[in-house]
Amino acid sequence: MQTVTARAHTNIALVKYWGKKNQELILPYTNSLSLTLDVFYTDTSVQFDPLLETDQFLLNGENVTGKSLIKVQRFMDLIRSEANIAMPARIESTNHVPTAAGLASSASAFAALAAAGSRAAGLDLSLRDLSRLARRGSGSATRSIYGGFVEWERGDSDATSYAVPIQEQVDWDIQMIAILLNRHEKKVSSRSEMANDVATSPYYPAWIENAQTEVDTIKQAIAARDLNQVGQIAEQSAMRMHALTMSAVPPFTYFEPSTLQAIAKVQELRAQGLSCYYTMDAGPNVKVICSARETPQILAGLSTIFPKEQLTVAKPGPGIQYLPPQQRSDL
Ligand code: DP6
């Protein structure tokens, strides 16, 4: 059978997804909204092969086993059952994202696997159905099917929970600076921490209650191309999400001392008149939302405390792409 290669870019949520009402189907309690980025992406090739005994998964050239392999096999089972085939597959992925460092690698990983896997199995899914399929691998992957600003409509069933593009071609001046503070695997996965926060944080009902207002307001701000308003809501959503981890039992935080240093620096630069805002995911790293026009000044400010190698500028990126095999950047 043919080998299919797909590329998916990661996305950073501006209004976060944090908590599932259905673990099996990955149905979230709330809508969320993200920006897909250009420089962080995953290339994945899939080939079904009747001669294999079981699925094989190579990530960045290394054979993956254990829990991560099982997660991928279960995902491939969804594709096999939809395509009505029984063959194992050979899967090769290259992550152009620091894996599990909080830069949402599962988003690009499962979006690329959904696209390459389904097409290699002979399925021709619509973008909506691809988004639904990606969702079954990891919630944030639901949004990586599209470029630019994307909303994940939570829905209330497998059929109604998928992403929709809000502004695919971002024609105004907004981008991010990723501050890489820690490259290591995160201590606690987003999956287990969000489940614990839903179960134990007394603030979780308030999180659900406020989410829709945040999504509605940020969509207006995006339509108005209002960087300051987008940034303010993103900060609010991120800090509220992290307040859920801190208020859970047991309490927990993804923040490290350097996370707080970065936040303080962004606040200082803002006090100097620069439009910059921070957001953090399930890890210590900080993403700064800003304009391309002011990026040189913001980079100069950040590099007074962080080495330049830790700072990556990312622009709005595209949705899912299919590549001929020779276009893989690692081959
Ligand atoms: C903080 O998508 O990694 O990045 O659905 O359990 O795989 P699972 O979780 P995941 O969680 C992402 C959480 C977040 C916020 C977001 O991307 O919306």
Automatic annotation (TrEMBL):
Query: Record's superkingdom?
Result: Bacteria
Tell me a GO biological process for this protein: isopentenyl diphosphate biosynthetic process, mevalonate pathway
* One GO cellular component term noted in the UniProt record for this chain: cytosol
> Keyword set for this entry?
ATP-binding, Lipid biosynthesis, Lipid metabolism, Lyase, Nucleotide-binding
Tell me, what's a Pfam family for it?
A: MDD_C
Q: Which residues form the Diphosphomevalonate decarboxylase-like N-terminal domain?
A: 8-163
Q: Is Cell inner membrane among the key words of this record? A: no
InterPro entries named among the record's database cross-references: GHMP_kinase_C_sf, Mev_decarb, Mev_diP_decarb, MVD-like_N, Mvd1_C, Ribosomal_Su5_D2-typ_SF, Ribsml_uS5_D2-typ_fold_subgr
User: Which GO MF terms does the UniProt record name?
Assistant: ATP binding; diphosphomevalonate decarboxylase activity
**Listed EC numbers:** 4.1.1.33
- Pinpoint the Mvd1 C-terminal domain residues: 179-310
NCBIfam families according to UniProt:
mevDPdecarb
PANTHER family (alphabetical): DIPHOSPHOMEVALONATE DECARBOXYLASE
Family per record:
Belongs to the diphosphomevalonate decarboxylase family.
Give the protein's recorded name: diphosphomevalonate decarboxylase
Q: Which organism is it from?
A: Lactobacillus selangorensis
